[in-house]
């Protein structure tokens, strides 16, 4: 589903990504861990076609990112740190707007169902500007999946969520997985990574330093691996 070869991203004479090679199969849910400044969010932005790589090759669903970026955009859902929502719009208005951008049929029905799925039906027609950070994040998640993307890119999606909202988000991710969606999730929350992901990638100084399957949802295994690699212990 996603094939990355020798990906390099340089900005202001600084190497952010240093020759990343990565292969992700359809339906995998992958967590990307690493210290601040490691290049995690930059990797997602490249895949979301928001920034261009300096060199290297990226293919998504067999399509070359450089040559077929418009087709790729239609099958990718992206949740950055900002919600991308219009704060004077309601959840329904936001989702209908973004659904129309993707040419979704019966978009209002889909929007109402998604608002229900993220637990905010009572606020369907309230302006987003009145929402808490956690509520905004829930609607932002709905926005990212309104077009049922084949690839879902999540940049620290659990930030600002209470336990109830975390459970809702995890359920959304797992539901998308059942539909065959491939998910990459940048996170600092090892617990959530261990609970919902199949695989962990650890990034340090713009390189992938480890790539492993999660065994028995073992949080301690993930934490120990991370500490060893990011503290420079071999």
What does this structure look like?
The structure is a single chain. With 234 residues, the protein is α/β, with parallel strands linked by helices. It has one domain (2-230): P-loop containing nucleotide triphosphate hydrolases (Rossmann fold). It is 36% helix and 26% strand. The protein contains eight helices and ten strands. It has a six-stranded mixed β-sheet with strand order 6-7-8-3-9-10, sandwiched between helices. Strands 2-1-4-5 form a four-stranded antiparallel β-sheet, covered by helices on one side. Helix 3 (91-101) crosses helix 4. The two termini are 32 Å apart. The mean pLDDT is 92.
Rg from alpha-carbon coordinates: 18 Å
Structural class: alpha/beta
CATH architecture: 3-Layer(aba) Sandwich
**Distance linking N and C termini:** 32 Å
Strand order of the largest sheet: 6-7-8-3-9-10
Which segments are poorly predicted (pLDDT under 50) over 5 or more consecutive residues? none
- Beta-strand proportion: 25-35%
- The count of helical stretches stands at 8
CATH topology: Rossmann fold
Count of folded domains: 1
Q: What is the typical, i.e. mean, pLDDT?
A: 92
Helix-strand sequence: EEEHEEHEHHHEHEHEEH
Largest sheet: 6 strands, mixed
Shape: globular
Number of strands: 10
Give the CATH class.
Answer: Alpha Beta
According to CATH, the homologous superfamily is P-loop containing nucleotide triphosphate hydrolases
Helicity, in percent?
25-40%
Family: Belongs to the ABC transporter superfamily.
Protein name: Heme exporter protein A
Domain ABC transporter: 2-230
InterPro entries: AAA+_ATPase (IPR003593), ABC_transporter-like_ATP-bd (IPR003439), ABC_transporter_ATP-binding (IPR050763), ABC_transptr_haem_export_CcmA (IPR005895), P-loop_NTPase (IPR027417)
């Amino acid at each position: 589903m996603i094939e990355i070869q020798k990906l390099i991203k340089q900005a202001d004479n600084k190497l952010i990504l240093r020759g990343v090679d990565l292969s992700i199969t359809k339906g995998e849910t992958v967590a990307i861990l690493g210290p601040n400044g490691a290049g995690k969010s930059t990797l997602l932005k490249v895949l979301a076609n928001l920034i261009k790589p300096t060199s290297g090759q990226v293919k998504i669903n067999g399509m070359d990112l450089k040559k077929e970026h418009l087709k790729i955009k239609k099958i990718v859902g992206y949740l950055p740190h900002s919600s991308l929502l219009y704060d004077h719009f309601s959840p329904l208005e936001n989702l209908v707007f973004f659904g129309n951008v993707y040419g979704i049929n019966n978009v209002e029905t889909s929007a109402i169902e998604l608002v229900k799925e993220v637990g905010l039906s009572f606020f369907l027609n309230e302006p987003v500007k009145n929402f808490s950070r956690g509520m905004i994040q829930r609607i932002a998640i709905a926005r990212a999946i309104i077009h049922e993307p084949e690839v879902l890119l999540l940049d620290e999606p659990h930030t600002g969520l209470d336990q109830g909202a975390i459970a809702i988000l995890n359920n959304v991710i797992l539901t998308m997985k059942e539909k065959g969606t491939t998910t990459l999730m940048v996170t600092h929350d090892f617990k959530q990574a261990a609970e919902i992901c199949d695989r962990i990638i650890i990034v340090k100084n713009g390189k992938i330093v480890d790539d492993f399957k999660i065994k028995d949802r073992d949080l301690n295994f993930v934490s120990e691996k991370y500490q060893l690699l990011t503290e420079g212990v071999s």
